[in-house]
């Protein structure tokens, strides 16, 4: 390897962003250390495979797969147009990670397209998230298993949202998210896999909410999301988005791919509600999404 090649490889490897090259067949020919850090996959895991071979399993913000008809890399290889998109990739640990991707064509000396380069960067609200986590850790308000807010913090946070609603008229919504058939998963694969799936779902949900929303574990396999400044139709859309992203997350147990689905009940808070009524399960003006349904359907909890 000549000195110039070594220099440029070291330069790209030390970028914070993930960078990978593909050839015309979308086969990965180079994978930098930033890509390893953001995805959990080492260069040896992916080099030589094709980006459509279920490596990163890109989805859009609604959880729809992009690896075939909607793949930005494939379109750029065809028309040579640079593209940028906000997508979710599949981390090696199972959860979904929001990234901003930028794709550019690679041309030879004659101008023909011979491959493409994708650069992707962490698109989560990292600074805000780290600040919130630090505050929660200081106050011992984190759920020790999943790393999201625990029941005590959820109750305090809900009370602050009610205070804002009564004082300023700021609306907010509450979702109760219940992992489906969780006892069967524990019985089939063991409690360690159950714990790992809880952590995977929590990470996916935490990465899916906006920086000023909250996701927390209410107990067992139940999570609560508090969504600020939202209307009912948008709350329904977000519930469906969360459902799809959790469903598209997965882990492996031996040769078996293990997935979990989630049923979601959601409601806008009203002046008649209390912290207790919201956290016991949305029942009024309820919309939601049930795991594995093709379309969202109401979930009323009693």
Structure commentary:
With 302 residues, the protein is an alpha+beta fold. Helices cover 36% and strands 25% of the residues. The chain has helices at 3-13, 33-39, 43-46, 72-79, 126-138, 151-168, 182-189, 191-208, 232-247, 275-279, and strands at residues 18-23, 28-31, 83-90, 96-107, 113-122, 172-179, 214-219, 222-228, 251-253, 256-258, 262-268, 287-289. Strands 2-1-5-4-3 form a 5-stranded antiparallel beta sheet. It has a 5-stranded antiparallel beta sheet with strand order 7-8-6-11-12, sandwiched between helices. Strands 9-10 form a two-stranded antiparallel sheet. The longest helix is centred in the middle third of the chain and has 18 residues, at 151-168. It is elongated. 36% of the residues are buried. Mean pLDDT is 85; it is low at 283-288 and 292-302.
Mean model confidence by pLDDT:
85
Instruction: Give the helix/strand class.
Output: alpha+beta
Would you count the extended β strands for me?
A: 12
The Rg value, from CA coordinates, equals: 21 Å
Question: Quick one: overall form?
Answer: elongated
- Distance between termini? 67 Å
Biggest β-sheet: strands ordered side by side in the sheet: 2-1-5-4-3
**What fraction, in percent, of the residue positions are helical?**
25-40%
């Amino acid at each position: 390897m000549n000195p110039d090649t070594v220099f440029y490889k070291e330069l790209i490897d030390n970028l914070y962003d993930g960078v990978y090259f593909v050839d015309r067949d979308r086969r990965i020919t180079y994978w930098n250390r930033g890509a390893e850090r953001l995805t959990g996959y080492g260069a040896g895991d992916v080099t030589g495979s094709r980006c459509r071979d279920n490596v990163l399993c890109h989805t859009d913000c609604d959880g729809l797969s992009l690896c075939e008809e909607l793949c930005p890399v494939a379109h750029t290889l065809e028309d040579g147009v640079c593209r940028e998109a906000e997508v979710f990739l599949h981390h090696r640990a199972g959860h979904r990670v929001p990234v901003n991707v930028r794709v550019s064509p690679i041309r030879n000396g004659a101008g023909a397209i011979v491959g493409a380069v994708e650069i992707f960067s962490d698109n989560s609200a990292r600074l805000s998230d780290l600040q919130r986590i630090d505050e929660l850790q200081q106050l011992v308000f984190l759920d020790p298993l999943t790393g999201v807010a625990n029941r005590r913090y959820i109750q305090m946070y809900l009370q602050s949202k009610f205070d804002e609603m009564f004082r300023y008229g700021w609306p907010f919504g509450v979702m109760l998210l219940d992992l489906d058939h969780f006892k069967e998963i524990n019985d089939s694969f063991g409690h360690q896999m159950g714990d790992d799936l809880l952590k995977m779902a929590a990470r996916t949900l935490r990465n899916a909410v906006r920086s000023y929303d909250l996701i927390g574990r209410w107990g067992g396999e139940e999570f609560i999301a508090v969504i600020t400044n939202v209307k009912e139709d948008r709350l329904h859309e977000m519930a469906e988005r969360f459902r799809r992203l959790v469903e598209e997350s997965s882990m492996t147990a031996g040769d078996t791919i293990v997935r979990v689905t989630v049923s979601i009940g959601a409601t806008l808070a009203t002046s008649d509600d209390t912290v207790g009524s919201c956290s016991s399960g949305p029942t009024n003006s309820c919309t939601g999404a049930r795991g594995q349904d093709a379309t969202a359907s109401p979930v009323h909890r009693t």
